[in-house]
Amino acid sequence: MKKTTNKIVLIGAGAVGTSFLYWAMSKGVADEYAIIDVNKDAAKGQELDFEDASPSAPSFFSVKSGDYSLLKDADLVVITAGRPQKPGETRLEMVADNAKIMKQIALEVKKAKFDGITLIASNPVDVMTTVYQYVTNFDSKKVISSSCTLDTNRLKFEFSKIFNVNPKDLNMFVMGEHGDSSVSTLEFATLNGIPLKDHYADKKIDASKKAEIHKKVYMKAYEIINRKRATFYGIGAVLAEISQSIIRDERKIFSTGSLLNGEYGEKGVYAGVPSVIGRNGIVCTYQFPLSKEELLQFKKSVSILKETTKKALAAIK
């Protein structure tokens, strides 16, 4: 019998995962949702709470909680499980603990014979995505990291304030690591095709100002964590938008993590690069033009990801 509904399974029912579900349900992304968490009581509680939201949603949905058998017939699994980032801790410092968690999840997902798309947001996200793909040996095009999509939103928001425009009309990306070594692509950024660099002088945007904006972007998570102990609404919205592009085959472009295979001369690790996302996962990647300095920063970021990935893989042996 032909499948007629879309199903999303969430693994990890913490603040990030449930914020994602709330966004996805509010947007009417899927028909069925399922929740898997080590804390089965909490997962059941989330199921019951989300049930109450269904009559008010734009379209009816069903929601269940349980074990990995829920992956049967799922189109998309979104993984947010892992221990949270502590105040003052970098994402890369979480690597050993979360690599072990990710290995166990990957083995369970593979055992369940899941054959859909995987979207991962567990930090350090590109490293965890590399671990997951390594353990499952799934097609890398069907395994996606949320990577720098949230960072890109933050960058666009900062520039939207400067130029007084809608952030959606800004064409720029944060690339590389979702973290401190990320790169803001400002040299060839545009406003719907209009080169922004032609207007930097008018807006008093020099090298110092660019560095200040970039630091604000990658430090924003630390500020949020220090103030309210966790970030979850922004990443929840991003995950819902990526999921919608997958479920509806919208083929939108995001700075998601792809397993590099020659982009900017790099291979073998997931990193944030502009990628077209559709029903079958990563349709293709594009090399957004970079200045010499931005390219060097990107390569340094990838180098850091490679070193951290070695530590993660060593931790799961």
UniProtKB/TrEMBL annotation:
Gene3D superfamilies: Lactate dehydrogenase/glycoside hydrolase, family 4, C-terminal, NAD(P)-binding Rossmann-like Domain. NAD(+) binds at G12, A13, G14, A15, V16, G17, D37, Y68, N98, A121, S122, N123, S146. The modification Phosphotyrosine is found at Y222. Residues 7-144 form the Lactate/malate dehydrogenase N-terminal domain. One of its GO terms (cellular component) is cytoplasm. Residues 149-314 form the Lactate/malate dehydrogenase C-terminal domain. InterPro entries: L-lactate/malate_DH, L-lactate_DH, L-lactate_DH_AS, Lactate/malate_DH_C, Lactate/malate_DH_N, Lactate_DH/Glyco_Ohase_4_C, NAD(P)-bd_dom_sf. The keyword NAD applies. Pathway: Fermentation; pyruvate fermentation to lactate; (S)-lactate from pyruvate: step 1/1. The active site is at H178. It comes from the Bacteria. Keywords: Cytoplasm, NAD, Oxidoreductase, Phosphoprotein. Belongs to the LDH/MDH superfamily. LDH family. Homotetramer. This is L-lactate dehydrogenase. The lineage of its organism: Bacteria, Bacillati, Mycoplasmatota, Mollicutes, Candidatus Hepatoplasmataceae.
